[in-house]
Amino acid sequence: MSTATFIKRSYVVGVRLDLSPNSARPKSAGRPGLAGLTRGALAQALVEGGVAPPDKARMRAGQIWRWMHHHGATDFSAMSNIDKATRTTLAERFELARPEVVARQVSADGARKWLIRFEPGVEAECVYIPDVGRAGALCVSSQVGCTLNCRFCHTGTQALVRNLTAAEIVAQVQIARDDLGEWPSEREDRRLSNIVFMGMGEPLYNLGAVADAIDIISDNEGLAISRRRMTVSTAGVVPQIAPLGARTQAMLAISLHATNDALRDELVPLNKRYPLAELMDAIRGYPGLSNARRVTFEYVMLNGVNDTLAEARALVQMLAGIPAKINLIPFNPWPGAPYECSDWATIEAFAGVVNRAGYASPIRTPRGRDILAACGQLRTESLKVRASARRASGADVA
Ligand code: SAH
């Protein structure tokens, strides 16, 4: 769907939308935040903000970068290798504080979920899942709400409020690291080792900010999570798949869920625009695929909908020749959902077919279900309240 279509549709239903490509957009308080700037943009901001002359800007940017992304500083006063006058100017011109964490929940299984308020009425969730990837994965949101309306997904019942900025995506990682107590970033035993763009929203409808965030998060002098430990999941925005690879070198995940167009049109309406044949072509062309760098295919198990053995065989056939991993995701229920999870025997039989075709460990244990933190359960209230109503009430809506 084009940006123009988004804007038109969103205005018709009265939802506020900001697709501003400027990921360094100043916060409402007025001072621009620094956390979402790439190294080059940070140096430039320092020159423009009168903090450093052009010949010193890179050096200063390097110092600030390290405090921000390696030590997790939220205050310029901590930057002990920067002289006091410069620190004062920095604090006058720029913002380092994190967005507000409005709620924090911990699941019985160790998953943690944070509800983050980026500005009044604009909130998204992010989830830390232990024992995923090398140590544990942070599932980050790329948008508040979503335009895709996948029928089994809770987020899909929430219209799009707006894209998140690079700063807001990076902030999710910083907040997780604050909470896990993992500053400085170089710790060997850190529990946050992987990032998955599988929270709220469609990352390929916000590729600019997602790519900047990946540049920032992967920097070795900063948060230092390698690109190979970052996975971007898409419902299949075909024209953005090659650009994603070229721009980020991140790992690719595809929310597949069906092996024929008729069913996929129903489950993932985006399929009507980019049908399976086109999607599979784009996936085959993803740069850098190999057995060490596989595409992940997500397949949600819906009782009586997509869970027959014939479909398992069709799935395996469809993926022939693609270095692939398959994650079978037991459907996670949410209030009012029109589906049920397949029963365990069916999931195991389905997994058996997939396993015999050579794909390992396919059933993904649901994590954080008790706090609605599992795949597809994320949703915030942000969109229910129109911008006009928020202004009228002056309220922060949780
Ligand atoms: N829009 C992107 C990013 C979201 S990823 C995408 O579609 O890939 C979230 C993953 O959780 C997707 O694979 C989605 O299909 C899956 N999911 C959504 N709702 C779910 C549910 N109720 N139970 C299990 N998985 C679900």
Would you mind describing this structure in some detail?
With 398 residues, the protein is of the alpha/beta class. The protein has helices at 3-12, 39-48, 57-70, 84-93, 166-180, 207-218, 241-248, 261-267, 276-284, 309-318, 344-356, 387-393; strands at residues 100-106, 112-119, 122-130, 136-139, 143-144, 162-163, 194-197, 230-234, 251-255, 295-301, 324-330. The strands form two sheets. Strands 1-2-3-4-7-8-9-10-11 form a nine-stranded mixed β-sheet, with helices on one face. Strands 5-6 form a two-stranded antiparallel ribbon. It starts with a helix and ends in a 5-residue tail after the last helix. Residues 150, 152-153, 198, 202, 233-235, 255, 298, 300, 329, 331-332, 375-376 line the site of S-adenosyl-L-homocysteine.
What are the bound molecules? S-adenosyl-L-homocysteine
* Share of helix, binned: 25-40%
Radius of gyration: 21 Å
Tell me the β content: 15-25%
Largest sheet geometry: 9 strands, mixed
Order of helices and strands, N to C? HHHHEEEEEEHEHEHEHHEHEHH
Distance between the termini: 30 Å
Shape descriptor: elongated
Low-confidence stretches: 1-28, 390-398
Structural class: alpha/beta
**For the largest beta sheet, what order do the strands appear in spatially?**
1-2-3-4-7-8-9-10-11
Query: Helix tally?
Result: 12
What's the total number of strands? 11
Mean pLDDT metric: 87
Assembly of the depicted chains: single chain
Can you lay out the helices and strands and say which pair or pack?
Layout: H1 3-12, H2 39-48, H3 57-70, H4 84-93, E1 100-106, E2 112-119, E3 122-130, E4 136-139, E5 143-144, E6 162-163, H5 166-180, E7 194-197, H6 207-218, E8 230-234, H7 241-248, E9 251-255, H8 261-267, H9 276-284, E10 295-301, H10 309-318, E11 324-330, H11 344-356, H12 387-393
Parallel strand pairs: 4-7, 7-8, 8-9, 9-10, 10-11
Antiparallel strand pairs: 1-2, 2-3, 3-4, 5-6
Helix pairs in contact: 2-3, 5-6, 10-11
The site of S-adenosyl-L-homocysteine (SAH) has 16 residues, from β8 and β10.
